[in-house]
Amino acid sequence: MQSRALADLRRIAEGLQQLRGSEVLEAVLRHDARQVKVMLGDGSMVLISATADDQGRPCLDVDVVRTFDDSERPQLEVHFD
After folding, report:
1. How far apart are CA 10 and CA 18, in angstroms?
2. Residue 1: pLDDT band by 50, 70, 90 thresholds?
3. 8/14 Cα distance (integer angstroms)
4. Taking burial as the number of CB atoms within 10 A of a residue's CB, which of 27, 56, 77, 80 is the most buried?
5. Pairing between strand 58-65 and 24-29?
């Protein structure tokens, strides 16, 4: 297995590991069956896509999108006179 493919597989596994135990609210399959969108109870979303690489080989891609919590970061206030 190529090192890039192995690195991608590890990245996908680590992303999905963080979601263990999350409640699945909804899963939607795209009309052409190339993508699945999974909505989770904490507001996160998982996108699982099947694509092709430059040589035409099938490729799996997983993206985890988390909601942004404003309370975790201090807000910067700027005053103009």
Report:
1. 13
2. low
3. 10
4. 27
5. unpaired
2-15: pLDDT as tens digits: 666 778 778 778 87
For residues 79 and 17, give the distance between their C-alpha atoms in angstroms, rounded to a whole number.
Answer: 43
Q: Which residue has the tokens 């999974």?
A: 38
SS3 letters across 12-75: HHHHHHCCCCCCEEEEEECCCCCEEEEEECCCCEEEEEEEECCCCCEEEEEEEECCCCHHHCCC
DSSP 76: P
Q: For the whole model, what pTM was predicted?
A: 0.65
Contacts of residue 3, Cβ cutoff 8 Å, sequence gap at least 6 = none
Give me the mean pLDDT over the 58-67 stretch.
83
Single-letter residue type at 54? D
